[in-house]
Amino acid sequence: MRKRRLIESFYNLTSVLGSLLALTAFGVTLSLILMDWVSGTESPYLGILTYIVMPVFLMIGLLLIPIGIWRTNRRQAKTEARSALPVFDLNNARHRVTAVVFTVGSMLFIVFTSFGTYHVYEFSESNSFCGETCHTVMSPEFTVYQHSSHAEVDCVTCHVGSGASHYVKAKFNGVNQLLGMITGNFERPIAAPVHNMRTGEEICLTCHAPDKNYGLTHLRKERYKVNKRNSKYSYDLLVNVGGQSAQTGESSGAHWHAANRVEYAPADAKHQVIPWFKAIYQDGTSRTYSTSDAGDPPAERVVMDCMSCHNREAHSFLPPHIAIDEALTSEAINPEVPKIKEASLNALGSAAKASDKKTGLEQIEHEFRDFYEDEDPDLLESSKTEIEAAIQAVRLIYDLNYYPGMNTSWTSHPDNMGHFFYPGCARCHDGQHTSQEDGKVLSYDCNACHSIVAFENPKGEVTSDLAGLEYTHPDADEEDWIDTGCFECHGP
Ligand code: HEC
Ligand code: HEC
Ligand code: HEC
Ligand code: HEC
Ligand code: HEC
Ligand code: HEC
Description:
Elements: H1 13-39, H2 44-79, H3 93-124, H4 127-132, H5 135-145, H6 155-159, H7 164-183, H8 200-203, E1 216-224, E2 232-240, E3 243-244, E4 251-252, H9 256-259, E5 261-265, E6 276-280, E7 286-290, E8 302-303, H10 306-309, H11 320-329, H12 340-351, H13 357-375, H14 377-382, H15 384-401, E9 434-435, E10 450-456, E11 462-469, H16 486-490
Antiparallel strand pairs: 1-2, 2-10, 3-4, 5-6, 5-8, 6-7, 7-9, 10-11
Helix pairs in contact: 1-2, 2-3, 11-12, 12-13, 12-15, 13-15
The chain binds heme C (6 copies).
C-alpha cells in the first residue's frame, strides 16, 4: 500500500471523489479558458460552460472534501472515544502536509474564484450573453441592433443600470426569463419594456449632451412609386430638431420636450393612443390637453423623455416600403428593371406571412418568378442577373426584419419617430387635442416640425423654396391624404 501523506480521515470515498471532481472541473475550466482565448470568438455556450457550469462542479467537489472528513470523524467518534472534529498536531508530518496542501489549495482557490467571479460577472453582462444565449428569443433584437447606430453600445448600458442593486434586479429578471425559456413560456413577440426602462436622463444623457441645440437637421428622402418605371422622386426635409441653449436655457423644436416637462396618460400598453397630456413649462405654468372623449384625467402618468420619440434607435424593424426604397437607392435592387418595386413588395409581403424563416426565404424566389411569368416572361431571360440580385436583396431584407417564430417585424413594434407608418408625433400633434386652459390646439400643421425645401420629380426637375413647399402626395388619385394621418393608410 502507498504511503498516505494526508490525515487519515481524508481517505474516505466522499472526500476522494470530491477531490477528483474538483480537480477534473478545474482542469476542464482551464482548458476551456485556453480554448476561449485561442479561438478569440465570444461564444455564449462556451461561456456558460466555462464560467457558470464548471465552477458549480468545482464548488461541489470542494464541498465534498470537508463533508467526507467530517462524516468519517463522526463515525469514528461513535466507535472510539474521540471528538467529532479532527485533531491537528503540527508535529505530525502528515498533519503538516495536510495543512500545507489545504492552505495553499485554499489560497489558489480564492485567487481563481475572484478571477472567475469577475469573469462570470463580465460574461453575464456581455452582448453575447444577452443577445445570443436565448438565441431564438433575443435574435430579432440582437440582429437588428448589430445594424443600428448603437451597435457599439452594450445591451446593458441601456437595459441594466450600473451598481449592485441594478445588477441583482437584472439577474433576478434573467432567472425568470431563463425559466420561461426552458418551459417555453415567453411572450412572442417580447413586449417592449416601456414600463421598465430607466429614464432617458439616466441612459441616453450619459453620452448625449442635454443642452445641445441641433438646429435644423437635413433628411433626404428618396422614394419610388409602385409603377412600371419605379419612378423615383425625392425631397429634402429640414426637421426642426432644436434643443436647449446652454447659455440662455431657451428651448425650441422637437427637442423642446426634453427641456420642458410633458406628462401623458396612454390608453394602451404600447403607448400608441394618448388621449390626455400636460405641458409644464420652464416658468412653472402649465397646459392640460385632451381629446373631446378623453374622460377624467387618469392617475397613472408617464413623463416624456428621449425614448418617447426615439424608441427604436437600437432595434429598428423596417417597413417594406422603406427597406425596398433603400435597396433601390443603393442599387442592390436595380430600379431599371420594369416593375421591380412591385415585384419586391409582393415577394416580401408573401414571405411575411410564412410560418417559418426557411419557407419565407424560399417563397421569395418563387414569388419573383411567378410575378414575372404573369407580367413579362421575357424579362426572366433578358434581366436574369438583375432579378437574381433582387431576389438576394429581398431575402436579406426579409432575413433581417422578419422573425416568424417570435411574431416580430415592423408590425409588432411601432416606431414613434415621425408619423408615416405609426402615429408617432401625431399621437399628440393631430389637431384633436385642445388645452383646457385657453383652448390652444396642438396642430398637425405640416410646417410645425419640418419644411420640405426641395422636391425632385421623376423627370429630374427640381423645385426648391427655403420657405417650404407644399407636400404633394405621390398617388394623385388619393384625395383624403391631407385630412387623415399618413399612418392610417400606410400603417400595419
Ligand atoms: C441605445 C440603447 C439600447 C441598446 C444598446 C440596446 N437596447 Fe434593447 N431596447 C432599447 C429600448 C429603448 C427598447 C424599448 C423599445 C420600445 O419602447 O419600443 C428596447 C427593447 C428591447 C427588447 C424588447 C423587445 C422589443 O423589440 O421592444 C429586447 C428583447 C431588447 N431590447 C434586447 C436588447 C439586446 C439583447 C441588446 C444588445 C444586443 C439591446 N437590447 C441593446 C434600447 C437599447
Ligand atoms: C454609450 C453611449 C451612448 C448611449 C448610452 C446612447 N447613445 Fe445615441 N449615439 C451614440 C453615438 C456614439 C452616436 C453616433 C453614432 C454614429 O454616428 O455612428 C449616437 C447616435 C444617436 C442618434 C443619431 C442616430 C443616427 O442614425 O444618426 C440618436 C437619435 C441617438 N443616438 C439617440 C439615443 C437615445 C435616445 C439614447 C438612449 C436610449 C442613446 N442615444 C444612448 C452614443 C450613445
Ligand atoms: C418629441 C420627440 C423627441 C424627443 C423627446 C427627443 N428627440 Fe431627439 N430627435 C427628434 C427628432 C424629430 C429628430 C430629428 C431626426 C429624425 O427625424 O430622424 C431628433 C434627432 C436627434 C439626434 C440626432 C441629431 C442630428 O442632427 O443628427 C440625437 C442625437 C437625438 N435626437 C437625441 C435625443 C436625446 C438624447 C433625447 C433625450 C434627451 C431626445 N433626442 C429626445 C425628436 C425627439
Ligand atoms: C405626449 C404628447 C406629445 C408627443 C408624442 C409629441 N409632442 Fe410635440 N409637443 C407636445 C406638447 C404638449 C407641446 C407644447 C405645446 C404648448 O406649447 O403648449 C409640444 C410642442 C412641440 C413643438 C413646438 C416647440 C416650441 O418651440 O414651442 C414641436 C416642434 C414639437 N412638439 C415636435 C414634435 C415632434 C417632431 C414629435 C414626434 C417626434 C412630437 N412633437 C411628439 C406634446 C407631444
Ligand atoms: C409634430 C411634428 C410633425 C408634424 C405636425 C408633421 N410632421 Fe411630417 N414628419 C415629422 C418627423 C419628425 C418626420 C421624420 C421622420 C423620420 O425620421 O424619417 C416626418 C416625416 C415626414 C415625411 C417623410 C416621409 C418619408 O419617410 O418619406 C413626410 C412626407 C412628411 N413628414 C409630411 C408631412 C405632412 C404633409 C404634414 C402635414 C399634413 C406633416 N408631415 C406634419 C414630424 C411632423
Ligand atoms: C387616405 C389614405 C392615405 C393617406 C392618409 C396617405 N396616403 Fe400615401 N398612399 C396612399 C395610397 C392608396 C398610395 C398608393 C398605393 C400604395 O402603393 O400603397 C399611396 C402612396 C404613397 C407613397 C408612394 C409609395 C407608393 O406605394 O407609391 C408615399 C411615399 C406616400 N403614399 C406617402 C404618404 C405620406 C407621407 C402621407 C402623409 C402625409 C400619406 N402618404 C398619406 C394612401 C394614403
